[in-house]
């Protein structure tokens, strides 16, 4: 009776894994040979592990990766890509995120920018960091809707709280005046507070022509370029063609 009451209380406190572990210990005589501290430790370990796993699963789902199976361990370092393996391995430790630095991934269509960006994002999730993947066109649409619905400050605040933001298809086409101002708001909100990965076909000097205002372009590029790791993917062969998937 006392044991069932304990199980019920654990379940009411949302400690269901610990409740199951407690029941298992009561039912299996092998546990009787363990000390009280050892038995409690086992129950706590099981509860802690399941909560950590659930937390990571929520972070993975919330990140919205376009390539959720991407990981740094599976990046292909074929000679023609000229990838800096040492740098990517260092970035996978996520220290650049703790120091609020950015990453610029440069390469032609199909070179694998998206995969590498998502792989670094997955490394961040493994460190229980909040990550969000978004295509720039989708972000601009979201911000435009937020302006129209008077929720723009709230949306900017939400993006400020994201530990690592992955912006894919960065500046594929010139931005309108309002879009340029919106991007400045995002960059300014995250500047020296959070990290961003930019996946682009164009290097920083080519970004200026994509913004409607030279002054705002300078402000945006200055906040990004001087605080970022730069990775150039030099590949003449599309990784999609090579593997049939993003790589």
Summarize this structure as a short list of keywords or feature phrases.
247 residues, alpha/beta, Rossmann fold, five-stranded parallel sheet, 12 helices, 5 strands
Average residue-wise pLDDT: 90
Major beta sheet, strand line-up: 2-3-4-1-5
What's the order of the H and E elements? Answer: HHHHHEHEHHEHEHHEH
Principal-axes shape call: elongated
**Individual helix count:** 12
Looking at the structure, the CATH topology of the largest domain is Rossmann fold
- Radius of gyration in whole Å, from Cα? 23 Å
CATH architecture of the largest domain: 3-Layer(aba) Sandwich
Q: Estimate the strand proportion.
A: 5-15%
CATH level-1 class of the largest domain? Alpha Beta
Total E-strand runs: 5
Fold and architecture overview:
- The chain is of the alpha/beta class and 247 residues long.
- It folds into two domains: 2-62, no CATH class; 65-243, Rossmann fold.
- The chain is built from twelve helices and five strands.
- It has a five-stranded parallel β-sheet with strand order 2-3-4-1-5.
Give the helix/strand layout.
Layout lengths: L1 H11 L3 H12 L8 H28 L21 H7 L3 H4 L3 E5 L6 H14 L4 E5 H13 L3 H9 L3 E5 L8 H14 L4 E6 L3 H4 L6 H12 L2 E5 L6 H5 L4
Parallel strand pairs: 1-4, 1-5, 2-3, 3-4
Helix pairs in contact: 1-2, 2-3, 3-6, 7-8, 8-9, 9-11
Brief synopsis:
The chain contains twelve helices and five strands. It has helices at 2-12, 16-27, 36-63, 85-91, 95-98, 113-126, 136-148, 152-160, 177-190, 204-207, 214-225, 239-243, and strands spanning 102-106, 131-135, 164-168, 195-200, 228-232.
């Amino acid at each position: 009776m006392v044991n069932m009451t304990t199980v019920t209380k654990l379940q009411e406190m949302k400690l269901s894994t610990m409740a199951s572990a407690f029941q298992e210990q009561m039912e299996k005589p092998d546990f009787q040979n363990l000390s009280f501290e050892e038995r409690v430790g086992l129950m706590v370990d099981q509860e802690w592990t399941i909560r950590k796993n659930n937390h990571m699963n929520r972070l993975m789902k919330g990140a919205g990766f376009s390539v959720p199976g991407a990981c740094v361990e599976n990046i292909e370092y074929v000679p023609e890509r000229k990838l800096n393996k040492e740098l990517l391995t260092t970035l996978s430790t996520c220290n650049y995120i703790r120091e609020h630095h950015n990453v610029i991934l440069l390469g032609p269509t199909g070179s694998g920018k998206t995969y590498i960006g998502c792989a670094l994002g997955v490394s961040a999730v493994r460190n229980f960091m909040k990550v969000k993947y978004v295509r720039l066109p989708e972000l601009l649409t979201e911000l435009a809707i937020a302006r129209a619905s008077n929720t723009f400050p709230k949306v900017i605040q939400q993006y400020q709280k994201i530990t690592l933001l992955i912006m894919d298809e960065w500046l594929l086409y010139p931005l309108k005046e309002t879009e340029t101002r919106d991007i400045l708001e995002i960059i300014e909100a995250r500047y020296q507070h959070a990290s961003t990965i930019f996946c682009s076909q164009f290097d920083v000097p080519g970004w200026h022509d994509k913004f409607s205002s030279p002054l705002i372009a300078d402000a945006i590029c200055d906040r990004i370029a001087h605080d970022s790791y730069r990775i150039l993917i030099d590949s003449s062969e599309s990784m999609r063609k090579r593997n049939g998937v993003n790589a």
